[in-house]
Design brief:
Elements lengths: L4 H4 L3 H17 L4 H30 L1 E3 L5 E3 L7
Helix pairs in contact: 2-3
């Protein structure tokens, strides 16, 4: 699923805040059906974007290593994976 450009350019925090806003709207149950479908779809894109950002952060953190002498180091991140 191709992300819309406006979502692709969001930071994790921006996307999460937008997703929270959608959840609040849907929970109130006062959104017309067509709008509900549209914002639910947008929420799916936002969730996908947040998941990708978290996976990227996790990959970067996993590259941080501690040597046998207790020194912190890092391995290069292969972003092609």
């Amino acid at each position: 699923m191709e992300l819309p450009d406006d979502i692709r350019n969001m930071s994790f925090e921006e996307a999460l805040a937008a997703l929270e806003g959608i959840v609040q709207k849907l929970e109130k149950g006062q959104v017309p059906l067509e709008e509900s479908i549209e914002i639910y779809t947008r929420g799916t894109y936002l969730r996908q974007h947040c998941d990708a950002k978290l996976k990227d952060a996790e990959a970067r953190i996993r590259k941080i290593t501690v040597s046998s002498t207790g020194e912190l180091g890092a391995e290069p991140l292969d972003v092609g994976q």
